[in-house]
Amino acid sequence: MKDLSLHILDIVQNSISAGALEIKVSILEDQDRDQYSMEIIDNGRGIKAEDLDRVTDPFFTSRTTRKVGMGLPLLKQNAERTGGSLSISSTPGKGTSINVVFGWSNIDRPSMGDIGSTMALLISSNPAIRFIYNHTTASGSFKLDTNEVIEMLDGLSITSAPVYNFLKEMINENLREIQFS
Amino acid sequence: MSHVKSLADLRKLKEDLQGKMSLREKSNHPESMVQVKVAMATCGIASGAKQVMEFFINEFDKRNIQAVVTQTGCMGYCYAEPTIEVTVPGQEPIVFGYVDTKKADEIIEKYIKNGELVEGIIPVKYQSIEINKENK
What we know:
heterodimer, A: 181 residues, alpha+beta, Heat Shock Protein 90, six-stranded mixed sheet, 6 strands, 37% helix, globular, B: 136 residues, Glutaredoxin, five-stranded mixed sheet, 5 helices
């Protein structure tokens, strides 16, 4: 994966496959503690206790189309390479929570990439799922909730190209404000 | 200071689009529209599926083609990512492999608009001549 936003797109697909109807993506850039944390919490069907230890094994997957599952192992490897870590907790029937920490200043930490288009793609192509995106830096925070977008659209489809492009630009513009101000 | 977009601006966008969009909403039956499913698992994303999906969303809008673009999981053709499944109304779904934005453009212009098959089809569903004979 070239950047962190692609990892998020990938990991969130697991939540969608698990039937989640609410997915929270939270980013915390904490330069004081030299940490760049990402948390993905869903209310999907969860992971069985016996499978939980194996989800970061690249040769374990619940899919039937292939025998490898690279999403979480790649993310874990990328995080550990920067002195960080990945932890997962899950309750079957309730949901899964993934927390991944990167070393903020580590040269191997991938950049965030185009998180605006990642979140806009997820929101506009999964209208039945509520996404809550939070991004916090030392300068401030930005929050986006699918429910607020739907309320603003007032009956108009969230899946259209103009709405997708608007969300993408809005997210990226707001992040620039809290990252470089 | 430049203006940063907020959700309030979305309301304005909504008003601008109201006329155009309401027409589309009336025909919002997926079976009557072109459906494109982009495989978005680790293999697809790492190969550029996101750019392909973004391309389809924007180009269908620009070219005024009624279509639904969605994500799907890995279809099992990791070697040929990005892969997409295209369903034209009334036709069997067709899976294309190695789709970049150039190929996506060709798929729109030739297959979706004109029904002309293009290179890169992955034969997902097929029957051999022998099986057909046995069934007869």
